[in-house]
Design goal:
By secondary structure, the protein is of the alpha+beta class. The chain has a single domain, classed as Gcn5-related N-acetyltransferase (GNAT) (Aminopeptidase). Helices cover about 30% and strands about 30% of the residues. The chain has six helices and seven strands; from the N terminus they run βαααβββαβαββα. A seven-stranded mixed β-sheet has the order 1-2-3-4-5-7-6, with helices on both faces. β3 and β4 form a beta hairpin. The model has no long low-confidence stretch (mean pLDDT about 95).
């Protein structure tokens, strides 16, 4: 049976649990191997997280927690690909514990997030995300909610002495409503 999934605005009180599940000493960092590992993002300590990225996430309209039951399992994000024009919104999703992968949480959360973003920006016709060919799970999440593979830039993501493709997915407002 599918757990109830919802998105929650990030509060100051959420920062410590978010850090613990994402970077803390007991966190499973496997998620970093799929979340753009070619960028070689650092594992943030509590001080770095709480005064930087985490602090900036509190009440941020483009960052929310993914909750199941009363448990924090991940995060959804969005950013303007075209900067100040604000016509091209990209999304992101991270489920931190691999035990939560492959059971529908990601696709349910991404679908909720897309609906919320389309509601917030009624003028936008399109939402999308960019991943890489090494992240098959993210590609399946997009396809499961009706996203289309819109582009592949071949052999541009270099990781562990191997080139991977950059892969772009997107969905139009009316396509999401059909799902």
């Amino acid at each position: 049976m599918m757990k109830k999934i919802w998105l929650k605005e990030i509060t100051q009180e959420d920062l410590k649990p978010l850090w613990e599940i994402s970077y803390g000493p007991n966190a499973d960092l496997t998620w970093m191997e799929f979340n753009g590992p070619y960028f070689q993002d650092p594992v943030l300590n509590w001080q770095e997280f709480s005064t930087g990225w985490g602090k900036d996430s509190v009440n941020h309209p483009h960052r929310k927690l993914i909750m199941t039951e009363n448990q924090l399992v991940g995060m959804v994000t969005a950013y303007w690909e075209d900067g100040q024009l604000k016509q091209w919104l990209e999304t992101g999703i991270t489920i931190y514990d691999p035990a939560d992968w492959g059971n529908g949480i990601g696709s349910a959360a991404l679908k909720l997030w897309c609906h919320e973003l389309f509601d917030r920006y009624p003028y936008l016709p399109h939402l999308g995300f960019t991943t890489w060919s090494g992240n098959l799970g993210m590609q399946k999440v997009g396809e499961k909610i009706g996203m289309q593979k819109e582009g592949v830039i071949r052999k541009v993501r270099f990781w562990q002495n191997q080139y991977f493709d950059s892969v772009k997915y997107g969905i139009l407002r009316d396509e999401l409503k059909k799902n």
